[in-house]
Amino acid sequence: MRSHLDARLPRLSLRTLVAVGLLSAFLAGAVGAAGTSTDATSSDLPAVNQVNGGGGKNIVNLINRVDERLLVRGKIQINGIPAPKVVPVNLAAATASCFRCQTYAVALQINVYQRGAPVIAPENAAVAVNGGCFGCVTVARAIQYTIPVDRITELTPDIRRLGVALNHALQGVEGSSSTSDFNVFEADARIDAVVADFQDLATYLLDQRHVESSPVSADPTPPADIASPSPSDESGAPAPSDTPATDIPGPEVTAAAVPSSVAPDSATPAPTDVVTDAPQPTPTEEPAPSDNPSAAP
Fold first, then answer.
1. What is the number of domains present in the chain?
2. What whole-number percentage of the chain has pLDDT above 90?
């Protein structure tokens, strides 16, 4: 009896193995195909963060100091918020300090929260600043969706598509390139195209864009009311004037006192301190007395 059962066991095992093998191959192909599709979708869709305390914070801060280059940086975040207080934060800040450069900072955030939450106060902002820039264009963009759902652990198909589309658009523009090949407005237009494709979710959208541009000229020009110096200014001599010349008063001359006996129009020389030798009278000798009395004097 035992030998009879032993003889039959190998045949039953062989049939079983063949059947199991065929079924396994079929299931493996189906699971493999499904697994490949799931993996592709998962890799395109950013991870969903289950956050507490009111929501997540998505902050993009970009500084560009490279001349004549476009610099694009961004971040996408998907949050599931179970808390009754829904206050996620999404911020994009772009700063440029360069010559003819372009800068694009973009913050993308999708928040799903439990339907019926009593407090819903998402915060979304974009700030662009140019410092010491000539010919610069700086753009900050903040896009935030805050959507009520029945189960925060499961994204609806339209939300999944939105996340994938935004992620693809961000990956397509992010990086550094020459401004002659790709510019900041083209990068922003690609994000705009995704937003336009999901009008059914526009009710839940907060969208902020801030554009800052600086003068194109790299050589500061003096104001028009400041005239260029003339050659005479450079040499130190006074510049010629169109106003007729006037007599410049000299030192004041005080007239000498004139005696009343002299007519006013007669000129009297002023006394001087110079002493001249005037002729002195010549003394005369008196005659000597004579001894002859008859002689008359």
1. 1
2. 50
For 46, residues 6+ apart whose C-beta sits below 8 A from its C-beta are: 76, 77, 78, 163, 167
Does any domain span residue 10?
no
Query: Which DSSP string corresponds to 78-140?
Result: EEEE-SSEE--EEEEEEEE-SBS-EEEEEEEEEEEEETT-SEE--EEEEEEEESS-BS-EEEE
> Which pLDDT tens digit goes with each residue over 284-297?
455 454 454 444 44
Q: Is 292 contained in some domain?
A: no
Q: Is the pLDDT of residue 164 over 50?
A: yes
Q: In this predicted model, what pLDDT tens digit does every residue of 211-261 receive, in sequence order?
A: 999 987 645 443 444 344 444 444 444 444 454 444 445 544 444 444 444
Closest CA to 64 of 102, 112, 114: 102
| pLDDT tens digits along 203-220 | 999 999 999 999 876 454
User: What does the block give as tokens for 236?
Assistant: 């130190």
End-to-end CA separation in angstroms for the chain:
222
Residue range of the domain that includes 94: 48-213
The bridge status of strand 89-96 relative to strand 123-130 is: parallel
The torsion angle over the Cα atoms of residues 158, 159, 165 and 170, rounded to 10 degrees, is: 170
- Average pLDDT on 85-111 reads 96
Nearest of 62, 207, 212 to residue 125 by alpha carbon: 207
Quick check: is 201 in a domain? Answer: yes
- Whether 75 is covered by a domain: the verdict is yes
Separation between Cα atoms, residue 56 and residue 44, nearest integer Å: 20
